[in-house]
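Researcher: I'm comparing several assemblies side by side, and this is the next one on my list. It has 229 residues spread over two chains. Same procedure as the others: predict the full complex and return the structure.
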Amino acid sequence: GAVVSQHPSRVICKSGTSVKIECRSLDFQATTMFWYRQFPKQSLMLMATSNEGSKATYEQGVEKDKFLINHASLTLSTLTVTSAHPEDSSFYICSARDLDAASTGGGYTFGSGTRLTVV
Amino acid sequence: EDQVTQSPEALRLQEGESSSLNCSYTVSGLRGLFWYRQDPGKGPEFLFTLYSAGEEKEKERLKATLTKKESFLHITAPKPEDSATYLCAVRDVNDYKLSFGAGTTVTVRA
C-alpha cells in the first residue's frame, strides 16, 4: 500500500534554531500534502495544505513565516520550523492525498510523525 | 464550520468486554467519515471510510456504523492489542481537508 516516509522521527533543538521535517510519498505522487500538529492527548490540528508547485494555504492562526512549507515535487514536502521556541515543541504529522488509495486507505496516507522538542 | 465530537474521552475495558465509541459530527454535506487508530508516538493508521447513512464496515473485532448525525465504532471482545487512541474525522463535500475529533483512548486490560 501507499507509504509516506517522514523524517526525522525525533529531534531536539536549541531555542532560536530552525528544524526541517521531510515527508516523502513512496510509490505514489502526492499532489496535495497536509501538515498537522498534535499536542499531548489532543487531536490533530491542521496547520496548512500544500499543493505541488504552489504556495501553501495556512489555517487561521498559523504563522506562515514561522512554519515554512515547501512542496517542490510530487513526492517531497518539507516543513521548516524557523527560530523555534519551547512552545513549538509538539508532534508534527504529514498526510498525503492519494486518490488511488481511496478504496483501500481512505485516500489519505499519514506519515509516522516527528516529535520536536525545543530546549 | 465542520465539528467532530468524540465520546468518551477514555475507555478502560477488560479483555473480552465489548463496547462502543461515539463520533458526532456537523458538516454542510458529508463527503466521508473516517476512522483511524493511533498508537503513542505514531501517525494515524487507517481503519474505515463511511460515505452514507446506513453503511457499515467491519475489520476483525471492529465494526463502524454511520447515521446522518453520528458514527459508532464497536469493539467486540477486545484484546490488549486493541489498546490505542481511535480518531474520527470528516470530510466536507466543499473541501478535501479532514476535520478530526479529539479521539477516544481505549485501554484493554488482560
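Model: For your comparison table: Residues 25 and 69 of chain B are 6 Å apart (CA to CA).
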